[in-house]
Design brief:
The protein is mainly α. It has a single domain, classed as dinb family like domain (Four Helix Bundle (Hemerythrin (Met), subunit A), Up-down Bundle). It is about 55% helix and about 5% strand. It contains 7 helices and 2 strands, in the order H-H-H-H-H-H-E-E-H. It has a two-stranded antiparallel ribbon. Strand 1 and strand 2 form a beta hairpin.
């Protein structure tokens, strides 16, 4: 596997697409599809969307700004990974999608306002659990976080027809993940 370093322009391209991908996938779906779970402990697609909304507000840009302004002198605030289960409980998909789109648009505008980040990617910040992390690691994680949760939504949705596929299940690895 080739090692790839973080590229702000490429990353922005992926981050800009996530809201449209999720809107195309989730908007207008019956509630049963939005409330399917992979397992009893997993989040539904709707809950994953709520988590992305919360992360957008409190993780990526605030932490990037902290690194750029304070370096390793300030520790990032703790992130409650389950806050969305209370904060966004009862919201429908279209409401959450609109909120995610709005927040992502704002995040990307702030990302752009940082200017060229190539010379800043090695700047360090302090994560409450990991200790020293770089701006490049944070921003890379933002991209992978989007992709990981998009995958989680697809996996949960596949489980909706887990039994309906019959014998083809043996060829559908997404049902066994």
């Amino acid at each position: 596997m080739t090692r790839v370093s973080f590229d702000p322009i490429e990353a922005r391209g992926v981050l800009a697409r996530t809201p449209a991908v999720l809107r195309a996938l989730l908007s207008g779906l019956p509630v049963a599809w939005l409330n399917t779970k992979e397992s009893a402990a997993a989040w539904t697609p709707l809950q994953v969307l709520g988590h992305l909304v919360e992360a957008e507000q409190v993780l990526w840009i605030p932490r990037a700004r902290s690194i750029l302004e304070h370096g390793a002198d300030a520790v990032f605030p703790e992130f409650d990974r389950d806050a969305h289960l209370v904060v966004h409980d009862g919201r429908d998909a279209d409401d959450l999608l609109a909120l995610f789109e709005e927040r992502r648009e704002g995040s990307l505008a702030q990302f752009d306002a940082f200017g060229p980040l190539v010379d800043s990617l090695d700047l360090e910040g302090r994560h409450p659990a990991f200790g020293s992390v770089t701006l490049g690691q944070l921003l890379s994680t933002w991209v992978v976080h989007d992709l990981a949760h998009s995958r989680q939504i697809f996996r949960a949705m596949a489980k909706h027809y887990r039994d309906a596929v019959g014998p083809w299940r043996q060829y559908l690895s997404v049902l066994e993940e």
